[in-house]
Amino acid sequence: MKKFVKTLEKQFSLNGDYIFKEIKLGRKWIYFAFNEVLTSSTYVNDFILKRITKIKPQDFYNLMNVLPDANMKEITKEEVIYYMHQGFIIIFSGNIIAIEAKASLDRGVSAIESELSIKGPKDAFSENFNTNLGLIRRRIKSEHLIAERREIGRSTKTSIGILYMNDIIDNGLLEQVKKNLETIDIDGIMDATYLRENLEAHKTFFPTISSTERPDKVAMALLEGKIAIIVDMSPYVLIMPTFLIDYFHTVDDYYQKPINISFIRIIRLLAFLMAIFTPAFYLAVTTHDFDMIPLNLLLSLKAQRESVPFPALIEAMLMSISFEVLRESDIRMSSTTGSAVSILGGLILGDAAVSAGIISPIMIIVIAISAISGLVFPSIELVSAIRWWRFIMMILATMFGVWGILIGTVILFIRLYSLKSLGKPYLYPFLPFNKLEQKDAIIKVNNRGEKYRNPLLTKNRKRGFYR
């Protein structure tokens, strides 16, 4: 039995959350194995270990009667890993006994706030490292899920966990992440964002590493061959690598019908384009390229701007900055006060600005369409990138008209094409083009038969079958 326990301990040697103990009582050795994030340490210490130390030598081979429990059973060696992942403590004596000692990792831990779930699970990560790891292990009950623990921060010595599926992950990708983490030398890690700043690509507005508070999203990413990083005291988990197309997907996409999701994804793509190009197009056609819109519409737009004292670019900038101020105040203040600020700014101040002739009505409509389109995406980093490129397009459109928009579009495309996320092309699966991955890019196809993983992330591509 000792040889089997040592083999099991070696198998899980990379995981810091698997505990193996041995106790000698008289001439007899008893071995224990459990996962500390899935089991209750209080229950293990008070109701199992204390009882074990008090039993008589003749009862070593009859632990089923000495340690009564509501859910205790004798298992085989082949079932040990399964019951460890179910939150059982395994006792190796003359036989192998599994005793239920599950920790409480239910929905009450926390509720999703930033990434609202419509039809999916409602539980979210919290600031507790073990709780977050447990929420993931509840979904992936496999010994192939590895969680390597490390400490970063000279003073804080913050625990981080590198999660991956060792039967799926690309080892080159894993080594690159580990190498990047080893280069981080900082006094303290207060949140996952500290790691993000040191790991993702620089000199770009677009995010190359995503963060989430949803355990189901992390589980899906791990099964695709991606890497997740848990940071103690942070309710967000980092996922890498990340592609641009990932921000047009949500976890709820996989809980609904494909035809409905395809429509929503097209809406998200249109919202992305409208958020960046709508103000720029308005500035281009009202300052340079007048012949691109009907004459009646052009006269109407010009008539609305007759009493406005500012150039169109300054007017658009003022409106955009005003919206960003209102959005920031809405985020930072309490829900009740924030709603009042939004109503005051959106209705009263907007209407007063139009009545005073400071802002034209059409400009309010244009900026509102652009701003609201950007809010379709839950990622703050992507919304910030959209904001910056909106300003760049507005300046280019004012200077060169529609040609400025074309120049900005080419620059944007080149920047996106040159971006890498851990060495992987940011525009995948469009550039480089992968026909198979198009079934779950923008249009989601309800295809039957054998499923495959992303070939850019793993060589273990086969996932199984849908019937």
Description:
Helix 11 (312-332) runs antiparallel to helix 12 (335-355). This protein has 15 helices and 14 strands. The strands form four sheets. It has a five-stranded antiparallel β-sheet. The protein has a five-stranded antiparallel β-sheet with strand order 6-7-9-10-8, sandwiched between helices. A two-stranded antiparallel ribbon has the order 11-12. The two termini are 42 Å apart. By secondary structure, the chain is α+β, with helices and mostly antiparallel strands. The chain is elongated, with a radius of gyration of 28 Å. The longest helix is centred in the middle third of the chain and has 30 residues, at 258-287.
Label this structure with key terms:
alpha+beta, 5-stranded antiparallel beta sheet, 15 helices, 15% strand, elongated
Largest sheet: 5 strands, antiparallel
Rg over CA atoms: 28 Å
Number of helices: 15
Question: Going across the major beta sheet, what is the strand order?
Answer: 1-2-4-5-3
Q: Which class of secondary structure composition applies to the elements?
A: alpha+beta
Q: What percent of residues are in strands?
A: 5-15%
Portion in helices: 40-55%
Output mean pLDDT: 83
- The stretches of 5 or more residues where confidence is low (pLDDT under 50) are none
SSE ordering: HEEHHEHEEHEEHHEHEEHHHHHHHEEEE
Count of distinct strands: 14
Overall morphology: elongated
Distance, first to last CA: 42 Å
Q: How would you summarize this macromolecular structure in one to three sentences?
A:
The protein is α+β, with helices and mostly antiparallel strands and 467 residues long. It has 15 helices and 14 strands.
